[in-house]
Amino acid sequence: MRLLSKIKNRLAKLLLPHEYLDTYYMRAKLYQKFLSDKIDFDSVTSIIESNAFFKPNDLTVKNTPDSSNILIFSPHQDDDIIGCGGTILNSVKDNKNIQVVYVMDGVSPKFKGEERTELIQIRNLEAIEVWKTINDNEPIFLGVPTRSDTTDTDYYIDLIKSILLNFKPDCIFVPYPLESPLDHRRTTFLIWESIRQIPGLNVNEIWSYQVNTMISPNVAVDITEIEPLKFALMGLWKSQNVLFNYQHRTRGMNAANSVYVMNQLPHSEPYIELFHVTTPKNFVELLSPYYQNSNLF
């Protein structure tokens, strides 16, 4: 069965016109050029917000980051497991130290007062339960008001800088910078600004992960063997799965991602998490033209 699947995949790839593949790969490289070159802000914004990202030429297939102290920033209480839950589980299995920071409070601004407080508590308790299952590390909750128009960004940037300096991560996970939800882009902006203000921060890599939006990856993590546990973890976000079946969606996304690594894995039905991995220096420089001119808050 596996051999037949490989033959079908190879035939499908061979049948695609070379012009199609060449165009596909060329477009994949354009987003970095548009972000890093000196281009007027309107053009950069148009590219950033278009969500037109394509598959790159090369993906490195890994099981975990080559790091032992990993700090994960998640916009809401569940985005971490959606985007990189399998990689987290692989890393815990390899005895890596992992700490999660939930940046937003996770509750729509339409809820006020006591009702809002109760909903935040529900989401936080779910997050605590999830991480008891993973490694029993207590999550950090920054509590940035979700989609607020009056956020004191300097206050939260100082908190993030303190976390970075105290935890001393050698690898940081953030949402992909071009994720469509505003809170996801705001989260990555806060991390970007915090890193920018600590020039001597000793971090090896920034791993940008996928939650809602197609990304341009350069690393694929094979989570096939651990995926059933990730699926179970997704079921613990009961308050969110009532609104939408994120557990089902996440499994589907990880299955769909397997197209990026056809013929590179031994599994006939693999599950894959995708990342754009870069150095802190490149991360800061790549996003500077957009973040220094945008008004995300």
Tell me the name of the CATH class: Alpha Beta
Return Rg in Å: 19 Å
Euclidean distance between termini CA atoms? 52 Å
Can you tell me the CATH superfamily? LmbE-like
Strand order of the largest sheet: 1-7-8-6-5-2-3-4
Largest sheet: 8 strands, mixed
CATH architecture: 3-Layer(aba) Sandwich
Shape descriptor:
globular
Structural class designation: alpha/beta
CATH fold title: Rossmann fold
Q: Given the structure, what is the number of helices?
A: 11
Q: How much helical structure, as a percent, in the residues? A: 40-55%
Strand content: 5-15%
H/E series: HHHEEHEHEHEHEEHHHEH
Number of domains: 1
pLDDT average, as an integer? 87
Number of strands: 8
Multimeric status of the protein: single chain
Low-confidence parts? 51-55
What does this structure look like?
With 297 residues, the protein is an alpha/beta fold. The chain has one domain: Rossmann fold, CATH 3.40.50. Helix 5 links the parallel strand 3 (97-104) and strand 4. 49% of the residues lie in helices and 14% in strands. Helix 6 crosses helix 7 (182-196). The protein is built from 11 helices and 8 strands. It is globular. The protein has an 8-stranded mixed β-sheet with strand order 1-7-8-6-5-2-3-4, with helices on both faces.
What characteristics describe this protein?
297 residues; alpha/beta; Rossmann fold; eight-stranded mixed beta sheet; 49% helix; 14% strand; globular
